[in-house]
Design brief:
The complex is a heterodimer. Chain A is an all-alpha fold. Chain A has one domain. Chain A is built from 3 helices and no strands. Chain B has one domain. In chain B, helix 1 packs antiparallel against helix 2 and helix 2 packs antiparallel against helix 3. The model of chain B has no long low-confidence stretch (mean pLDDT 83). Classes of the chains: A mainly alpha, B mainly alpha. At the A-B interface, helix 1, helix 2 and helix 3 of A face helix 1, helix 2 and helix 3 of B.
Chain lengths: 89, 110
């Protein structure tokens, strides 16, 4: 039953990631794309942790922690860059 | 003992799936970026948090359990902060102006 739950979780998280990618591609403005990217980073964090649990290796959990920290810093950089490029034009 | 953990993990998984599906519907049904941010941060925080709780119940060893507790605490700090950064970007980029023309731009208290 445990393997069944992990398999179902993998399918639903992949489904959420695909739906969010569609929103990221068709989003009319930069704000919509940024909202979709915010969700996508959380979903990929959950996918990394799921992979670490289902293969019983703690290495992926360390990767997930570093990914969370740098994804958070990347958001600050992306918003700062977009704001500056909009002011410059 | 294992069957109790599996049943609790299944309940958390079903709650997370329900919240995630509702959030994905809201991501496509809503019209302006503020509403999409509301739906997205709902599903991004609650669904992923429920999934992390289910994975915490299913974790194989004590080392992965401790790492996962640190991850959950850090996720609960970083996800609302990221949503706040996105909301501030939407407010300053004025992308929602076309949908909400009567919005009071003089209020700078955000």
């Amino acid at each position: 039953m445990s393997e069944w739950i992990l398999q179902a979780m993998l399918y639903t998280l992949t489904f959420f990631a695909v739906i969010t990618l569609v929103r990221l591609l068709i989003g009319p403005t930069a704000s919509d794309r940024l909202v979709a990217l915010n969700i996508l980073s959380a979903v990929s964090l959950a996918l990394l942790i799921l992979w670490g649990v289902s293969t019983k290796r703690t290495l992926y959990l360390d990767v997930a922690l570093v990914y969370d920290i740098f994804g958070f810093l990347g958001f600050l950089a992306i918003t700062r860059f977009l704001k500056k490029s909009k002011e410059g034009s | 003992m294992m069957i109790i953990r599996e049943v609790l993990a299944l309940i958390a998984f079903l709650i997370g799936t329900a919240f995630g599906l509702v959030g994905m519907v809201g991501l496509f049904r809503f019209k302006d970026p503020y509403s999409r941010l509301h739906a997205g941060s709902l599903c991004g925080t609650t669904a992923v948090f429920s999934y992390l709780l289910a994975l915490l119940l299913l974790s194989p060893s004590i080392a992965s359990t401790l790492r996962m507790i640190i991850l959950i605490v850090f996720f609960l700090i970083s996800a609302p902060t990221g949503s706040s950064i996105v909301a501030r970007f939407i407010w300053e980029s004025q992308d929602a102006e076309a949908h909400r023309s009567s919005m009071n731009r003089e209020d700078k208290s955000l």
